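Slide 14.
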Amino acid sequence: MIAATLCAALALQPLSAQAAPARIKDIVDMEGVRENQLVGYGLVVGLNGTGDSLNNSPFTKQSLQSMLERLGVNTQGENVRTANVAAVMVTANLPAFSTQGSRMDVTVSALGDSDSLQGGTLLVTPLLGADGEVYAIAQGSVSINGFKAQGDAATVVSGVPTTGRISSGALIEREIDFHLGSQNSLRLALRNPDLTTARRIALAVNDFIGAPTAVPEDPATVRLTLPRGFNGNIVDLLTDIEQLIVQTDQPAKIVIDENSGIIVMGKDVRVSAVAVAQSNLTVTIAENPQTVQPNPLSQGQTNVDPNTTLNVNQTDSALQVVPESVTLQELVDGLNALGISPRDLIAILQAIKVTGALQAEIEVL
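Slide 15: predicted structure.
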């Protein structure tokens, strides 16, 4: 049946053998044009009794006392009891080429046992980079998407009320020292490394400029060199070539997520000649206990006798031959027509791969 279905699918139009066209700017990252991750630790105040419990969150208590001391309030030895303060982690991505004085968004996430950050205000929080330097200062009112409503006998929670965002909540204080326009050479990093795609990018750039400007160094890197006599700097060169269309290529790969049963196949997946047989085994167990009453005047006891119904249904298919060089379109159409579940399809693909008949890489998530 598998062979008949797959052979019937031969009449269908197969997937196009052409690669997907894309602009260079959509498939590469440019050296130096990148974001930088920042992180900071701070306090959110003004919560309506939904903050950290200071007994369970000692870091919140210590941070609160340290902040008050810096403001001239001495609380050492005092029993501070408040539920309107929460310790939070503040994260942000510093945009490329951000200038001093510009703003960016930040994300605020509760660190202790706070129930909600709704209505809170983040106090001045330094945001540090991987080098330990402060690059921005965050402060402002926290906006959340979720909420929590609680009564004596019921609680309703929508979304995640312990995570919020401050739009334009950070002021950039330090710039990343990188001058793109002064570079004479630059690398383009492919987001999906591939030898063929890297070479096609280099050929497209060189044909457009009319000089040997781009050189593919490896599957993930194409190096650009500013050509002699070019009227402009490296920024002008990048602007000229980023709109060029390139036919991208990709390796034959099958991605499998066994937990969810999701299967994703690339268009170049091929199957050599192989024989396949599938067997489905279904076992049904039903319990119907019977109550047995004692005879009159026998002084017996009521008993329950077990009654189990066991059915075994096994469906076998004969060993079928899958034709050689079956395309992805034909393979998917044939297996779908058989009604094979994703779990069975995962097992079949892995078994075909073991035989060496599947001309593709299988990646299991």
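Speaker note: Residues 36-172 form one domain.
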